Amino acid sequence: MKDTYRFQVNLSGMINILANHLYSNPRVYLRELLQNAVDAVTARNELEEGYQGQITVELSGMGSTATMTMEDNGIGLNEEEVHQFLAMIGQSSKRGGEDFISRETSFIGRFGIGLLSCFMVSDEIVMITQSAKGGPALEWRGQPDGTYTIRKLENALSPGTKVYLRCKPGSEIYFGEQNLAKWLYDYGALLPYPISLHSGSSSRKINGTRPVWIAYPELARDRKEEVLHLGEQLLGERFHDFIPLHTASGRTGGIAYILPQAVNLNAKKTHRVYLKHMLVSEKAENILPDWAFFVKCIVWTDELQPTASREHFYENEKLEEVREELGEAIRSELMRMADYDQSRLRQIIGQHALSIKALAVEDENFYRMIYRWLPFESTFGRKELGELLKERSTIFYTLTLDEYRQITHVAAAQFMLVVNGGYIYDSELLALLPQICPEAESKRLQPEDISFSFTDITADERRQYYENTRTADAALQRFRCQIQLKRFKPSELPALYTLSKESADLRSLEAAKEVSTDALSSVLNSLGSSFQAAAYSTLYFNLDNPVVARVFSGDPAMLPAAVEMLYVNALMMGHYPMSRQELAVLNEGIIRFIEWGYAAGNTQDGGNGQ
Amino acid sequence: MNLDFEELMEEAYDLPRGKAQIAVLEQAIRAADTAGDLEAGFEARSELVESAIFSGYPMKAIVAFSWQLGQYDKNNDLFDNYQLLWSYKWILDKVACFPDIPREQIDNLLDDMKKRYAELGYSERTYCFYKAVLLMQYGELEEAGRYLDQFQSLDRDEMSDCEACEQNRLIDYEVLLGRDERTLRVAEPILSGQMSCGEVPHVTLSTVLMPLYRLGRQEEADKLQRKSYRLVKGNNDFLLQIGENIRYLALTDPFRGLELFEKHLSQALDHENPWDQMMFSAYASTLFSRLKQETVAFQVKLPASFPHPEFASDVVRLEQHFLQEALATADRLDRRNGNSYYGSLIQSL
């Protein structure tokens, strides 16, 4: 014969795990209590339509002698329910055998497990409860070692539940009056019935009347001050603008407050989400699409499933749907602004360009509506795209910040409009531009393209400088650099070193090869062979520059050394780290020119002396 | 060290992984190198390697890592080796994607990693795992299977990939063998959400679409396809997964597939990973092969970087073009690998 046994769980160990690992902060005991109270009221409401709930919190004593009670006038529990809900962990408070997390009910709490969180702040939990369905009133006492007692009280009470907690040493702050008031407000601000807090002779209402726009977010537009005020109270920040949110089903709504300051792309998102009127998360990250990082939201919903700690939501299809719809609400409001309220939109873009660009990259229609106001950095300054398009119908842009830096100086001197595409989203947006705005053209500008705006040298000059140009070119051959002789502004600039993204990549590959291990150096060698062809850099010499004019007309013997020095000089001007070979050129060059300088000086001295 | 470097690094830490962050890190590296500051150069390259690996710039990662490892060997008292050796795995995962790198050089790298891990007391498990990964990339599946068995028999240690990542490779293996039911069984812990990490299920979902489809479970596949696309669309590293989405949509919703293709073609065209590009092209050609059966007048949106704007209205030529592109890379890979694996794979799609 076979015996079946059950696993035994050590409850005090379990409580420890819950207290220390499941919840992020002991103050959630308050949320759990409140949630139980809300569930009790909800259940009673099902029994008696229109029943008016009420939750009363009382605080007596101070510091380590503080005691707190929370009382609701909900459905209460009878003895069977007490055993079932308070003693069986992993069981939902309300009927059915399904997994307690995945089931959708009108209740949010899981009575037993929630109550256990009170052991984080109290060494004993006492509960007095009277079921609305009759039976005697009960007194339940739970201990953190996992034992409890039940006593039947002699007199019947009015239905409801009252929980008593006594402050455990070290938990004083969780019983402070100000803290309780604040946290109760945080968790319960949107509850549709009153919570009150009494302490000694003082008594206060925690939550005001529930604003009508909670049920109908569209109405928020006409109550601007009220909405901004709630934002300030709940999110602790003074906002100036907001967008009402709602989903088609009406089961999720909210307010997206527009942040008054620019935010970092990586900033933690701290949206506040209320599930069935109760605060579930103060740092819900996944409730809005990624691009919407310029708003902070209060969202209320009754259709999402919280995770076990009830501080986040399960990433499931429902959440995805809700996220899309909330994102759509923000997006369509912005689109509406593009038609009817451009100054408001421009203010938002001015503050949150990055966020708006993130959306524009994802969404062509949106981009089409708002592209005019997106700011870009260009050789004409930081301007809106619409302004830039008034100047030129073709927008040149670089792929990287590096490429932009190489040519900005020269391009500006030639009055060429070039946009820096090195910032996040910018080159993608510019590449897309012709698709959303047919009158506009956009072209990637490689650094060497800038030379199209240079003045070519004349046929005579070409003949005159032919030999020296070849010599100079040969001198830089070993650096994979070719030279071009041109005339360009500004004339103070002797030479312009240009390196496309491709050759910049090869350059750093070569540098890494110099220092790497044998195994990796050979790998880099193989990799480098694939882009040899495209990988020449170009050094443009400016014949308008007096030094360059002199170098190319002077002594051919000095030419290679002078060209090499101008080459390393151009590298330094462009902040390029130099390879060993290039450093050697610099060192030898300095010595050589010092020698030449003195030699020339001596000749002169000698001449003067005679 | 110099202010420039510190400021650039701060800027970089504020950016999400990807192109913009890489650009700032490259500037920081230049500042460090110009100042001759090895430690700063090392720090910035560590960030670069990670950012580049996870945002689809494997070439940049290989270059930066090569510098790091070389400097580490010359001055190993200056640098911490854990992160460096951890990132060796990322490099090994990518090198075989480049047909220009001969097999011998790749195997040398793997042996070098094995030696370094052994010297520091790490188990052979990671070596076996990456040996299997490489063999899978070479198309030598039987041999890969032996190494996967061996890897699973050894104990995890600090160099092991996370469980979700390991499970994902086991799924890949079943996919390569075409064992649909087993694929789904092995994928279960990931599909149910029990296993996940920064890259999983992102890289997983699109691999099970075809198995589900072949097993007649299109409804589930449709759901996963939408989820997959949402997870992968924003990151340049997931070009392959975008391709797999397109492949699936080619069969179930080809005009949606075309939308994805149009949206991601420019990403594919200037992608750094030739293997991912090859697969994207191959999947794109299956899309056009399906679309050519339609009678509508096509006007496919092609980015300026696409060399044949005149193909926009001609899906037959687009099909041919992408097939040729894919086969060209497949041919180079096959010659490197010494078999005809990728050529046949692509023809069989």
Automatic annotation (TrEMBL), chain A:
Alphabetical UniProt keywords: ATP-binding, Chaperone, Nucleotide-binding
Binding of ATP, residues: E32, N36, D72, T161, R310
Gene Ontology molecular-function annotations: ATP binding; ATP hydrolysis activity; ATP-dependent protein folding chaperone; unfolded protein binding
InterPro entries in alphabetical order: HATPase_C_sf, Hsp90_fam, Hsp90_N, Ribosomal_Su5_D2-typ_SF
Domain of life: Bacteria
Stored PANTHER family: HEAT SHOCK PROTEIN 90 FAMILY MEMBER (PTHR11528)
Family: Belongs to the heat shock protein 90 family.
Protein name per the record: Molecular chaperone HtpG
Organism of provenance: Paenibacillus albidus
From TrEMBL, chain B:
Protein name in the entry: Tetratricopeptide repeat protein
Annotated source species: Paenibacillus albidus
